[in-house]
Amino acid sequence: MNLRQTVLFLFFTSVALLFFSLNRAWAQEETQSPSAFSAEIDVLEPKIQALKEEIVELNTLLFKLQEDLLFPEDSSVVVFLSVEGDHYFQLDSVKLSLNDQMVASYLYTEREQSALKKGGIQRLYTGNVRSGEHHFVAVFHGAGPQEVDYKRAETFSFVKEKGPVFIKLIVRDHPEMKRVEFTYETWN
């Protein structure tokens, strides 16, 4: 026998053994009464549910471990975005640069715009930086009053010290001045 014939022989033998074992399993299942079969299912059901819960718990722990490894607390920086009002500016997109390097770019759908207007906060960027002074440049693009195309770049500086830094970019209507303002807040 050559190699090809040996492989084919082993393949067909494996398939035959598989069918034989399946046939035996089906025969055993048919000989069991339906009540015995349902009793076995009832016994297995709590075990299956416990395994599902354990898998979800392990997945959560794995995700947290991955986040901790990728973004250590001592060097992490997280940037959020919120929109407060939409009378003077309708946000279409945002681009974010950290220390003159593009780190995020986002184009918003109508649904996402609606969620932001209702108080939603978007996590725009998560990354690592060394201790010291850093700056972000955020370029906001959208529509101003009377649907006029509007583009604005803002620079935000922060000092990274020990521990994580959280920055919230805020696009806010300023009713007294009848315009939009772009501000930010930081906290550790």
**Top CATH class of the largest domain:** Mainly Beta
Instruction: Enumerate the spans where pLDDT stays under 50 for 5 or more consecutive residues.
Output: none
Number of strands: 8
Main beta sheet, described?
4 strands, mixed
Strand content range: 35-45%
**Morphology call:** elongated
Strands of the largest sheet, in order across it?
4-1-7-8
Q: What would you say this structure looks like, in words?
A:
This protein has 188 residues and is α+β, with helices and mostly antiparallel strands. The chain folds into 2 domains: 3-70; 76-187, Immunoglobulin-like (Sandwich). Helices cover 39% and strands 40% of the residues. It is built from 3 helices and 8 strands; from the N terminus they run H-H-E-E-E-H-E-E-E-E-E. Strands 4-1-7-8 form a 4-stranded mixed sheet. A 4-stranded antiparallel sheet has the order 3-2-5-6, with no helix packed on it. Strand 2 and strand 3 (101-107) form a beta hairpin. The chain is elongated and about 80 Å long. The N and C termini lie far apart (73 Å). The model has no long low-confidence stretch (mean pLDDT 81).
